[in-house]
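Lecture 7 notes: from sequence to structure.
We start with the chain below.
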Amino acid sequence: MKQTYSEITAEIARLQARAESLRKAEVSGVIARIREAINVYGLTAADLGLTASTAKASAPAKAPPASGKIRTGVPKYRDPDSGQTWTGRGKPPLWIKDAKDRTAFLIDGSASPASSPPTPGRKRTPRGKAAKASTVGVAKYRDAETGKTWTGRGKPPAWIAGVKDRSAYLIDGSAA
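Predicted structure tokens for the same chain:
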């Protein structure tokens, strides 16, 4: 008996529906076994590789250069007005883009770093005064069970998100 195209597609649809119902029935059993194993062994999301930090750590690393050394761009040109530098690779910055002779911008190899102009955007501290320590990225809260920390910035992690009084999670000295 020869089947038509519509009969075959209808049969495929029936088989897909049957497969989906079997999958749903099996998934509930699988989830129950996984939950039992998590409870028995005390596994966390990080142990299972389900957090963003472990996903980055488990990602394959980029291969180092063939020479084994990591190459960074050494500045070759400096703008005398702003102090900005350029390595000579890639798109030239505006301050050197239209220059016909770039030798005026070359950094002399004999110039010491102390005599170079300050980097724009950075304030120098007067002598004898220490710069104020940055608190960006310093952990403020710690979960006693897992040891995980949070800075208090951005979206709170699940272990502290639902807590009304976070003072119990404060790390010593960060209450100020």
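Points to note: Confidence is low (pLDDT under 50) at residues 110-116. The longest strand covers residues 77-78.
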